[in-house]
Amino acid sequence: MDKTFMTRRTFLKGGLGAAAVLGIGGGTMHYLNMVDVKGRILIIGGGAAGCCFAARLMRRISNPDITLIDPADRQYYQPGFTFIASGIFKPDEVWKPMSKCIPSGVKWIKDSVVELDPIKQTARTAGGQVVEYDFLVLTPGLQINWNKVEGISRETLGQGNAHCIYDFEGAQRIWPAIQELVAKGGRGVFTDTYTKLKCGGAPKKICMLTEHLARKEGKRDGVQIDYFCCSDALYNVPLYTPRLLQIYEERNIGLEVNHRVKGIDTQAKKVYLEHHEKKKVKEINELGKEVEVERTIITPRVEDYDLLSFVPPQSAPDFVREAGLSWTEGKLAKDGWAMVDKKTLTHIRYSNIVCLGDVAGIPTSKTSSAIRIQLPIAVDNLLSIMQGKDPEKIYNGYACCPIVTDYGHVLLCEFDYNKDPDPSFPFTLQDMSKEQASAWMLKRHFLKPMFFHGMLTGLM
Ligand SMILES: Cc1cc2nc3c(=O)[nH]c(=O)nc-3n(C[C@H](O)[C@H](O)[C@H](O)COP(=O)(O)OP(=O)(O)OC[C@H]3O[C@@H](n4cnc5c(N)ncnc54)[C@H](O)[C@@H]3O)c2cc1C
């Protein structure tokens, strides 16, 4: 076992105490505030958002009636996948049996929701069980659409040295492949995806960690590293973007923007990309007039690789859209993200639904550290709704993306809906627009125990 791993006891003694003093994990004092509300609460999805929500609710309601539906055997600390992929964590450090995470007193239905009827207030599971609710907590995370990258599937990850760290097995398979790339030399191609994705920093982190490993091993000259980014910029939070770009340049990491992965030929080790470029073109409209319109011009491109790290497109789970809970217009409609009020985290159409975590259609990053701040707000707002009051607690869009820039430094990006810096960790004396060793210590040693022993127990 990792000697630096905090046990529950050491975390509660030291970590939680420190967190309380430092003001991390606001809302802790709420435990004193028990409420006697009535109603059947159904939580769909018991991941970072759903399980922690259940734990908090159990500490707030005197006679809770909570059912949680989730088919998973394990609760993963997914931020740890990047650290498995770079040899920092062992796979068994990042998960716990789901049965040990769901708070006692919560009825667990170990099944998947396949159909939801927000009018009848029922959810049907794959096993045919129909569950009625009065209040719904929608937290099923997101769906990774493996079928949208041709030539590879979740099951064949690793074939032809094409890898994805957004999967527990995938994260394990890439680590020996990265070591081999460094040892033997070759070209590492790293990509991300064009939809909203969980932890948009993760594909960049594994790229920079690979580059640093090659340098540490004295093998950098033999390794070419290229990053193909889907958006028109590597990152879009003003305080942090300049330093990230500088790091890519200083370390000679090739950067290309506006590229999407279409498919992979794992036998030939080729990745098929589309370069998307918006151009203004003149066209004749139906009235015979010349007009200027914006068109996306797609240019196909094929790149050879020795190691590929890719990320499939992501969306809300299908049942969310089928239930009519998704945005129907705007940027968030295409991939079915849930129609949520970005301030109160309540559903815009259905007043008895709260929604947080990756499935929520709100304009912020999909990270568990965002969930840490969403939790007390969403819980309070649900309790208000259950008491017939308006939801009043406001979420400012806080998200944190600890971008690991090397084995020892993290660019700790914390920001709100306006992309303004919103620090919640106590590093105010440091220049957080740059990578810091202190932020590495936080990420490496503190955030995982904070998740398992703080958030999942409802204490943070
Ligand atoms: C590689 C990687 C790196 C990351 N790095 C970071 C990081 O550094 N920092 C950070 O803060 N975040 C990071 N994240 C993101 C973070 O893990 C997610 O944002 C967080 O887990 C989302 O929580 P959630 O509860 O919304 O979804 P999840 O934790 O994914 O949980 C969803 C749950 O819903 C269940 N479910 C799904 N469909 C159904 C259904 N139909 N019926 C019932 N249950 C269902 C699933 O079984 C699952 O248990 C990373 C993620 C990945 C993959």
Q: Which stretches are poorly predicted, pLDDT < 50 over at least 5 residues? A: 1-5, 17-23, 25-29
| % residues in beta strands | 15-25%
Q: Which fold name corresponds to the CATH topology of the largest domain?
A: FAD/NAD(P)-binding domain
Q: Which geometry do the CA atoms define?
A: globular
CATH superfamily of the largest domain: FAD/NAD(P)-binding domain
Rounded average pLDDT: 93
Q: Return the CATH class of the largest domain.
A: Alpha Beta
Number of domains: 2
Q: How many helix segments?
A: 10
- Helix and strand content put the structural class at alpha/beta
Q: What hetero molecules are bound to the protein chains? A: flavin-adenine dinucleotide
CATH architecture of the largest domain: 3-Layer(bba) Sandwich
Spatial gap, N to C terminus? 25 Å
Q: If strands are numbered along the chain, what order do they take across the biggest sheet?
A: 5-2-1-9-20
What is the helix content?
A: 25-40%
